[in-house]
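SAMPLE LOG
Freezer: B-3
Tube label: C17
Construct: single chain, 244 aa
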Amino acid sequence: MPLLEVCGLTKVFGRLVALDGVDLTVGENEFHGLIGPNGSGKSTLLKCVAGAELPTQGTIRFAGRDITAARPSERASAGISLKFQITSVFPALTVYDNVLLALQARTPTAALIFSRTRRSLHEPVMHMLEQFHLSQRCAERAAALSHGQQQWLGIVLALASEPRLLLLDEPTAGLSLEERRVTGELLLALKDRCSLVIVEHDLDFIHSVCDRLTVLDQGKVLDCGTVSDIQNSPKVREVYLTRV
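STRUCTURE (predicted):
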């Protein structure tokens, strides 16, 4: 059974049809990329899966459960986590405290009231920071991090809930070539922890990370398949030569 099943998803904003009957299937521990020209509906699709937007019609099933009308908090509890393109870190807090707060969100209220969590969560906080090359910056304010490091911290925060499905919207936007390479390595290390749906414009990056790709164009699925299938698709080649 697929982890995520999107069937006939349509999203209309006034006269704009952002999504028009989109189908998407993502398996367990699959890394699935969403590509396509600007305005093709990629980010809107992520928001519909996460619950930030409700579809006009169609269905979304996660782990066999219909979540089409579920609240974002219910989807998060079920195991879906979304990181937007704009970083959502707390710039005035230290890098350490950003991750601590994210982990404390999973902690019973009584334990928080009596301040029992900081010591018990120290090791998990440092482990997550080490995984993303941020442990040496743990005592600094998040605002002091480079743009790339803030993107990595944002991914750490999205992973704090231990999601089964991680949604990333353009995680390499504004990153240097070296930062993109490292980001790819960091994401591939998550392969045995969760599935991934990623929106990205850097085709070299997404080809190196993803198992399968879905190409959107004007709100519709243009093609779907393995990276090799998409690279050799005449339909996709035409779109990228004429509209991207």
